Structure to design on (174 residues):
């Protein structure tokens, strides 16, 4: 039996060397991917659509048509805000939305069993609250990114200022 253990180890080492050589060849042949501009696609858009009401809560209109229009406008403003960030940061935000769009990650990290389209707003708010106070700093940072993007994009629009009693910037003295 010692010879079978030795042959097993030899095969393992040869396999590891083959994989390492293949990876090296792949890196030499394939140019590094250049960062691309942020774009929400498919499941990532569903993540944002589920997160916006959980973060904005009662400031969204109650009437269904106005609420849908406000959600669409908020989503567009978040996308525009992300596109104003450096390309490396855009990539990180894209990766966050892509991760949350994946089924296994959605279940493990967010606790959302079904798709984001069927996610209960209370369930989404609970996952965000969990991330906000999580012991892992990475999840806290991810929460802060989602929070700041949504809240910042929402209140950057002058049409939302009246709801919080903000009169707007001071008028310059003439």
């Amino acid at each position: 039996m010692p010879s079978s253990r030795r042959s097993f180890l030899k095969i393992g080492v040869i396999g590891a060397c083959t994989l390492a050589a293949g990876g090296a060849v792949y890196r030499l042949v394939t140019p590094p991917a250049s960062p691309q501009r942020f774009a929400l696609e498919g499941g990532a858009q569903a993540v944002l659509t589920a997160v916006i009401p959980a973060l904005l809560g009662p400031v969204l209109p109650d009437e269904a048509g106005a609420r849908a229009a406000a959600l669409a406008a908020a989503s567009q403003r978040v996308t525009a805000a992300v596109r104003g960030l450096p390309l490396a940061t855009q990539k990180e935000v894209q990766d966050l939305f892509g991760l949350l769009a994946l089924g296994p990650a959605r279940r493990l990290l967010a606790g959302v069993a079904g798709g984001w389209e069927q996610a209960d707003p209370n369930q989404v708010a609970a996952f965000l609250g969990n991330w906000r106070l999580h012991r892992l700093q990475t999840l806290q940072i991810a929460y802060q990114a989602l929070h700041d993007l949504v809240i910042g994009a929402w209140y950057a629009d002058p049409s939302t200022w009246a709801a919080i009693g903000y009169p707007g910037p001071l008028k310059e003295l003439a």
